What we know:
Strands 1-8-7-6-5-4-3-2 form an 8-stranded parallel beta sheet. Strand 4, helix 4 (114-126) and strand 5 form a beta-alpha-beta unit. It has helices at 24-37, 56-69, 84-97, 114-126, 138-141, 147-153, 170-179, 193-198, 213-224, 228-242, 250-261, 277-292; strands at residues 7-10, 42-44, 75-79, 101-104, 132-136, 159-164, 184-187, 203-206. The protein is α/β, with parallel strands linked by helices. The chain has a single domain (7-292), classed as Alpha-Beta Barrel (TIM Barrel). The protein starts with 6 loop residues before the first strand and ends in a 5-residue tail after the last helix.
Amino acid sequence: MSIDWAGVFPALMTEFHEDGSLDLEGTQRHMESCMEAGVSGFVMLGTLGENPSLYGDEKEAVLTAAVEAANGLPVLTGVAEYTTDMAIDHVRRAERAGCAGLMVLPCMVYTQDQREALAHFRGVAEATELPIMIYNNRVAYKVDLSPESFVELADVPNIVAVKESSHDSRRITDMYNACGDRYAMFCGVDDLVLENVLFGARGWVAGLVNSFPRESVRLFELARDGDVAQALDIYRWFMPLLHLDVDVKLVQMIKLANQITGEGAEWVRRPRLTLEGEERRMVTEIVETALASRPNL
């Protein structure tokens, strides 16, 4: 199956009102800001989209609104459910909403072994014709698909891409050595993006693009084009912000950054709470320092 996914794909926040209700118009406004900066597609309902915090009908409403606002850019949905059958049910919602693809995670809560994880991904793939990006994040989900695992999955035609989030830059090279160009490789860790793109990632499922879309797109373009010196200047400026993407409170932190930069609101759903005290001060200082020294693009 051929896809043209490449470039910066925001792992977009799901906007809420202060009372916790969906703010679909706010989500669409945020998408428009990202599109003006030059993003290439969207991943909705990932970790930053607070997937597990939404009911099924709400997820479908978010996806429908996103496809409507995307102006033809590909919209993928995170598939992060408790069981394979529940994942397939969400896939049906994504199909109805008009999504262009799926970003599939291991099943939540129960940590699968390799045999179970591969069976899960195969089961979801067999249930749809939509192209699939597998989200490989051993740090967060305790399931690690090795390059050899992806060799085993190479016979599944609609598994076409990998969001590599193992926190190990060597994985990109190991994947190319094991699988050639069978999969479109995407960086999934913000503070490894320069290394990952230089080593062969053709795309970036990005977190801080939510707050700084223009800088994120420019950084990716410079890295993709091999302009390491200019990319490094932006990367060093960006790094304190990019570190927020790997914190356990990345959702609250990036939503606060969005609020400070005018890209969105900080409201989250319980059990998450908005930041306060030292955490709030720390994030605010990092964002305000970045704004004061923002690169002239």
